[in-house]
Every structure is written in structure tokens, then in C-alpha cells.
Amino acid sequence: GKVPASNILASAPSNKNLDAWRELGCRTTHCNLEVVHRSTLVFLATKPHILPGVLEEIRPAVGSHHIVVSLVAGVTIQTLQRLLPPWTKVLRIMPNLPCVVQAGAMVFSRGNNAGDEEATLLKSLLSSCGLCEEVPESYIDIHTGLSGSGVAYVYLFAEALAEGAVKMGMPGALASRIAAQTLLGAAKMLLETGEHPAKLRGDVCTPGGTTIYALHQLEKGALRATVMDAVEAATNRACDMAKD
Amino acid sequence: MSVGFIGAGQLAFALARGFTAAGVLAAHKITASSPDTDLPTVSRLRKMGVNFTVSNKDTVKSSDVLFLAVKPPIIPFILEEVGPDIEPRHIVVSCAAGVTISSIEKKLSTFCPTPKVIRCMTNTPVIVREGATVYATGTHANVEDGKLLEQLMASVGFCTEVEEDLIDAVTGLSGSGPAYAFTALDALADGGVKMGLPRRLAVRLGAQALLGAAKMLLESEQHPGQLKDNVCSPGGATIHALHFLESGGFRSLLINAVEASCIRTRELQHLADQEEISPAAIKKTLLDKVKLESPSLSVASVNKVSLFTNKSKKN
Question: Helix axis angle, B237-247 relative to B250-273, nearest 10°?
Fold first, then answer.
């Protein structure tokens, strides 16, 4: 409820996706320049290879009153500032999928001309979608590895949990729901108690009980190292892709 | 109060050393006995001023608190031998891994109606007064007896009472624990040497690092996970190293080790309960001595007893 839908204007070359926007009550257009002319806060949400063309197109219309926020993966602030007028206030943000259900994790960094006011505005706007933190730009690729891609790791884990339950005799649909709720609940406890995950883990482990037996299996499988490897791989890939 | 040790090996020496260093007991109030006078610990005990004898019976007679500091398979023999000399005043403390209170009480009850038995599990760092000890009291050992032992053992490290069914787990963790630590320290030192440190320095630094970390943990309210995090700066050396440890399944290896030691202890106990001991596993001299000193044990009955084939180290 931060911004009324009628104040949001989205542009795209075709109607393919625009219907969804209209359904929400937003205005739509096929003209990128129109968006720039009629908005103060402009989000760039194209695919990386499209962006340079779009920036060239809108460059003439970008003024010092605009706040340009790029959601485009792998495009650095340096690149953005190079392709836009030198007075442009640029910010770069990396969200993740669960923003859709307002449980996202986003990090953003500012360009040379973006000040506290712009940062505060962005943060307050985006907090409606989840966790939103300002970071040095070097963290953005790490965020990709941790949380951008991280969502997929969690889906994988949830699937595996459910499969384990199915193996032990539980119907799949029920197992999936419980798996998801387990992850949600655990995450909620982590966020709300602020306790170290190791402590929370210990709290669940009764001596000689089921949990410690299961955890032993996870340790045998070097789950921790594998997860670290995953975050590292995704982060490195993000860095490599940005260089392209 | 006088303390006696049946057995004059590593454990007896470690405890005697610890007690005297702590000042809770004068060396001349300690007696230790063993049929084997060639043990290196025997001369060290003598040098300390501990009374050494080859007669277990003498040890019993001159002690109030009697530690059974022999290897688990020997316990039944010892109990047969000294049983007749156990008096109501004696507190019999067994340090043998896997030997249950009930098995000791059963053996002693043929000689003494209400033997005071305490089972304890300690570890070698008692020698430097940083031992980890737990104990469980037997049927006839009362609260004061437990407290007396606790006072003694607390002088050489940490000591607490537990339920007997936890003692095997304690064996796996802190009983065998020093061995895990020595292995880790050896390897850490190798790492240091590989990266250019002289061996002596590497060993010294590795040991100090573990000592310091352990001390921090004991004195902190924080979870070890948190303490670990505090050392790991983002993108730094430590987190890179930890990743290697995790990749190697470091944690699971340690869990496996504690589990294996605990399970083995239970196995040994199980075997002992079945009272199967083979003569081959006991040194011949020892067996002869036992035969000499226990006329009640007929040769036939001794041959009936068959043991675990390897003379397992304590713990």
C-alpha cells in the first residue's frame, strides 16, 4: 500500500506481460520515454543484453530530478553511470524471488549522485517487499550467490525433505506442505529470536534423540561444505557474468 | 585419609601425580601395587614418594579409598583376590572403562555384604590437574562417599556426578578425547611445519591455540558456533580454512569417533559381563601371579575364562 497502482507506469515492447500490470491497476505503455517523462522514480528491469539499447533511448530524457534504479543483473553502477547523463542519480538493486510474496531479501548500492534521501526513499519503498539493506556494491554478487540463487537451494532442500518423508510412507502433497512450513517456521525463529543458528540447532537436539542422529547423517554428507561451495559458485559466476 | 591404587600404570601415576601436586594428599599416604615391577610408571611413583608394593592385599589394607586402576579384563581377578580384605570402611573406586557397578558389587558381595562401590571415568590430563571426571555411586555408597571422591577428583580437574548409563558416552567423549586432541595437534603442527615453522614452535603454538580456545569456551556463555564466527572475518583466512574442514567432513569424523569409542566401550562391557576371558590375552607372568595369590581360583576355572584377544588400552 505504499504507492497507489495508478501512480505506476510500466512499459514493454509487447503486451505479453503488460496485462498483468493492468490487472493490478497500473498504467501501461509501449514507450519507454513516456515512462521517463511521467515518472520521478524509474526502475530498469530489462534483461542485461537489452539494457544498453534502452539506456541510449532514454538518455536524452533523463534529468537531475530522476532517480534511476537498476534491477538488471550483472550491470554495474559504473556501466550505468557511463551510459546515462553525468548528473543522474543511480542506484543498483538485487532482489530475490520472494519479493513477490513480500518476503524478499534485497540489497542495494548507490551511485555517485545518489544521496541519503534517495537511499532512504528506496529503502522505505522496498521494505514493503521484505528485507532491504544498503550495501557496498561488492556485496551484490555475494547476495546473488546467497539469496538470489539461494532461493533455489531452499527449494531443493524442501524437495529432498519431502522425498525423505515419502520414502518413509507419507503422501507427497502433505510432505511438501510440511516441509515448506518447517522451513518457514525455522526461518521465522531465526529472524525473530536473533539467536545464533548453532544455538537453535542445539536446542532441538535432545541427547541421543532423533535430531542428533539425523544431523550426524547431514554432517557425514558434508552438507555444510557443499552449501558453501554452492554460494561460492553462484557468486563467482555472477562476477564472471558481470565482466561480459 | 589414605588412598590406594591397585595397578601402577598410567592411570595410577596420573592420579597420584595430580593429587600430590594439588596438595590434597601427601605421597606417603598413597600406596600403589602391581605384580609387574618393570613398568616405567613404577619407578616414577617410587620417586614421588608413593609406597609401592607387589602385594595388592597390602594396598587394600593400607587404604581407605581404593582405586582399581587396572585394565578392564583384569578387574574380575582383582576383585577375587582382594575381596576378602575389603572392609566396610573401604570405598572401592573403579576407573575401568565399561565395567559396571553391578558387576563389581556382584563379585564383592560374596565377601562383603554391603561393599561401597563408585564407578568413575576420568582421563589422563588429571596429571596436569585438568582432568575431566564423572562418577556414579553404587548401591551402598552414600552421599558423603560420593562427595569425598568428588573432592579428590576435583583437585585434579573437573568432576561431576552422573547417572551410570551416561558413563560410556563420557568415555567416548572425554575419556578418549585427549587422544583426538593429540592427533589434531600433531596434524596442526604438520601444517605449521609445511608452511615453514620449526617443529617445536609449531607444536607449542598449536597446543596453545587449542588450550586458549578451550579456555575461552569454558569461560564464555557463548555457543562455540558464535565463538567460531567471531574469528571469521568476511573473505578472510579463517573462513577459507574452515571450508576445507567442512569439505573433509571434519565434524562428522569427530562425531563418528565419539560414537565409536562409546560403542566399543559397551561391547567390551558386554563381553566382560559374559565373563569370557582367554588366558592368551593376559601376560603369562600376570596370570601366574594371579594363580599364586588366589588359591580359590582353580586352574580349571581359569582356563574356562576366555577373553578379548587384544589387550585393549585403558579407554
Answer: 40
Give me the domains of chain A, ranges plus CATH numbers: 5-137 (3.40.50.720), 149-242 (1.10.3730.10)
Residue A199 Rama label (left phi>0; alpha psi -120 to 50; beta): alpha
Contacts of A221 in chain B (CB under 8 A): 252
Q: What is the dihedral of CA B117, B118, B124, B127, to 10 degrees?
A: -90
The model's pLDDT over B241-296, given as tens digits with 9 standing for 90+, comes to: 999 999 999 999 999 999 999 999 988 888 777 765 554 455 544 555 555 555 55
Report the residue of chain B nearest A217, measured CA to CA.
B252
Structural domains of chain B ordered from first start: 3-162 (3.40.50.720), 171-261 (1.10.3730.10)
Question: Each residue of B167-203: pLDDT tens digit?
Answer: 999 999 999 999 999 999 999 999 999 999 999 999 9
- CA Rg, chain B, in Å? 21
What is the pTM assigned to this prediction? 0.79
- A224: which chain B residues are within 8 Å (Cβ-Cβ)? 246, 251
Is the pLDDT confidence value at B315 over 60? no
Q: Answer whether B225 sits within 8 Å of A225, measured CB to CB.
A: no
Grid cell for residue A178 = 510440511
CB environment B111-149: b (16+ within 10 A), e (fewer):
ebeebbbbbbbbbbbbbeebbbbbbbbbebbeeebbebb
Q: Which residues of B touch A220 (CB under 8 A)?
A: 249, 252, 256
Tell the residue number behind the cell numbers 564472471, with chain if given: A240
pLDDT at B231 over 80: yes
- Report how far apart, in Å, the C-alpha atoms of B68 and of each of B65, B75, B102, B135 are: 10, 8, 15, 14
Residue tagged 526502475 (cell numbers):
A43
Angle of helix A210-220 relative to helix B250-273, nearest 10 degrees? 130
Closest partner CB to A219 (pick from B225, B229, B249)? B249
Quote ipTM for the complex.
Answer: 0.73
Contacts of B256 in chain A (CB under 8 A): 216, 220
Closest CA in chain A for residue B224: A198
Q: Does B260 belong to an annotated binding site?
A: no
- Residue of A219, A220, A226, A229 to mutate, interface with B, max B Cβ within 10 Å: A219
Sheet with B3-6, strands from edge to edge, namely B51-53, B30-33, B3-6, B65-68, B91-94, B116-121, B131-137, B157-161
| Whether the Cβ atoms of residue B153 and residue B67 lie closer than 8 Å to each other | no
